[in-house]
C-alpha cells in the first residue's frame, strides 16, 4: 500500500505540474496575441509627420510619411528572403529640412549589390523602427566590402552621418528595390507549440502513472500459485 500511495502522490504531483505549465503557456499565448494585434494596429495606422523629438520606445512602429531627398552612399545589410535567397537591405541617409535620418529602402539580390539606385527628392511612407538584431554571435561589419550583418541603428547613423532614427519604407523608392516593410511575421510566438508539448507530456505522464499503479496492484505469478 505504501508503494501504491507513493506512486499516486508522485504521479498526481507530476501531472499537476505539467498541466499547470500547459495552462501557463496558453495564458502566455493569449497575452502574446494581444501584443501582436496591438503592434499590427500601430503598424497599419494612418501615417503622420515625423515627430520633432523621436523616442525609440514611444515611437517604435510609428507610421510616417516624409518628404525629402535620398542622399548618395549606401550601406548593405546581409539578409535572406524566403523563396528568393540571399541579398542586401539598402540603407541610406534621407534628408528633410534640417534633419537627416536613416532610410531602409528594402531588398536587392546579391547580384544587384553594385547597381545604380534612384536617389534624389521623393516622398516616402514607412514605419520607424529600432530593430534588435544584435547578439553575441553577430559578426562585426566588413567595412572593406560594405557588408553589415545587422541593422545596428546607432552605428549605421554614425557611418552615414544621420540621426539614430530608422525609417523602413513600405512604399517603393526604386523599381529595382523590393520594400521589406515592418510586420509582425518576424516576431516569434511559439506558445501554442509549448502548450501542446506540456499537455502531451502530461498525457504521457498520466498513462505511465496508471500503468505503474496497475502493475503494483496486479497479483504476481508467485501470488497466483
UniProtKB/TrEMBL annotation:
Keyword Transmembrane on entry: yes
Main location class: membrane
The keyword Cell membrane is annotated on this UniProt entry: yes
Name listed for the protein in its UniProt record: SURF1-like protein
InterPro entries named among the record's database cross-references: Surf1/Shy1, Surf1/Surf4
Pfam families with a match to the protein in the record: SURF1
Family: Belongs to the SURF1 family.
GO-annotated cellular components: plasma membrane
Compartments where found: Cell membrane; Membrane
Keyword tags: Cell membrane, Membrane, Transmembrane, Transmembrane helix
Membrane topology: Multi-pass membrane protein
Transmembrane segments: 192-214
PROSITE patterns: SURF1
